[in-house]
Amino acid sequence: MSAPDIHSARPSFASFAPPQRTLMGPGPSDLHPRTLAALSRPTVGHLDPSFVGMMDELKVLLRYAFQTENALTFPVSGPGSVGMETCFDNLVEPGDTVIVCRNGVFGGRMIENVERAGGIAIVVDDVWGETVDPQKVEDAFKTHPEAKLLAFVHAETSTGARADAQALAEIARRHGALSIVDAVTSLAGCELRVDAWGLDAVYSGSQKCLSSAPGLSPVTFSEAALERIKGRSRRVQSWFMDLNLVLDYWNSAKRTYHHTAPINNLYALHESLLLLAEEGIENAWARHARLHRMLRAGLEAMGLQFVVAEPWRLPQLNTVYVPEGVNDPEVRRRLLNNFNLEIGAGLGPLAGKVWRFGLMGQSCREENIILCLQALAETLN
Ligand code: PLP
């Protein structure tokens, strides 16, 4: 008997028509109509002169968002995780000691990145939902003066806690180390000043407070980080993420082909960064802080309790305990089905215990908060 011919039946599906949701989870966030429209503009070649001009603007716009003069500032092709690996793979050499702060899921991923790059991770643990304790970091440097890098998450999306990036980077610098900072959730959602705070390698994501399409990871590297990368004793293990190669496309007049850039996705990032520049970065931070207070008042009026203490709470990621006796997945399912509203579940040890309400970028609007509070009140009653 001959094998059935799996190619004989031609698949026939309708075009995909996603529902219109309101995204108030941990990301992605809602895209502004201008950003969505940018995605559907005609695709050009990645070496087309018009495109190359747009790439130069993108770098300027990203420097503004990061508040930096760093020449090496560009969007890595790939989600935040690729930006993360780009930082670790380029800055960690086998045998290097790296102090890593862990107070949530994403600090844990940093440890994995260090170890996969052949480094030795010295882990500084803090309680999930609390900030990173600078004294513990100071102590870790005293015990490990050989440490070459300090890695921490500025905005821990799994808990909603902020780290004092300026204080932590200052400790690293005092001990002769560079800093690697995860700003996936912080960029454009709360104060982040790469130059003023002396951060060395910072990665972010397009889909959180920038409100662009998922799949790009803006990064920025200080001169000191660039020198470290150029002076490596071994080649970067990853070909795709080796900055020495990528930069021939992004940062040189030669524009040597490295990989096919995600053209339309870059149009969208450009548009979302224009929107940010039109609003003004400090105004965007202030909007997130103001609307966080509005959401907080509503959630607390319903008796919900925040996980993170006020001074370290991220305005763009609000984590509250699921009330006793309430069916977590059922509530989220009803919010989605009845109100087209997405909120986030807990991650890791917080799974089933918390809800995460994102107020990121274009999702951070008064009408979303009103929808969210009304929908939640009806669902919990
Ligand atoms: N770091 C943080 C703090 C995040 O919140 C995320 C995603 O949620 C990532 C890294 C990974 O980003 P991506 O999912 O875009 O790969």
Automatic annotation (TrEMBL):
Q: What CDD domains does the entry give? A: AGAT_like (cd06451)
Gene3D superfamilies noted in UniProt: Aspartate Aminotransferase, domain 1, Type I PLP-dependent aspartate aminotransferase-like (Major domain)
Q: What class of enzyme is it?
A: transferase
> Looking at the record, which segments are called Disordered?
1-32
Q: Which InterPro entries match?
A: Aminotrans_V_dom, Aminotrans_V_PyrdxlP_BS, PyrdxlP-dep_Trfase, PyrdxlP-dep_Trfase_major, PyrdxlP-dep_Trfase_small, SP_NH2Trfase/AEP_transaminase
Q: Which UniProt keywords apply?
A: Aminotransferase, Pyridoxal phosphate, Pyruvate, Transferase
What GO biological process terms does the UniProt entry carry, in alphabetical order? glycine biosynthetic process, by transamination of glyoxylate
Q: Which Pfam families match?
A: Aminotran_5 (PF00266)
Binding site residues for substrate: 356
Coiled-coil stretches are none
Q: Return the EC number.
A: 2.6.1.44, 2.6.1.45, 2.6.1.51
Would you say which domain of life the source belongs to? Bacteria
Molecular function (GO) terms for this protein are: alanine-glyoxylate transaminase activity; L-serine-glyoxylate transaminase activity; L-serine-pyruvate transaminase activity
Family, per entry? Belongs to the class-V pyridoxal-phosphate-dependent aminotransferase family.
Q: What is this protein called?
A: Alanine-glyoxylate transaminase/serine-glyoxylate transaminase/serine-pyruvate transaminase
> Which organism does this record belong to?
Rhodocyclus tenuis (Rhodospirillum tenue)
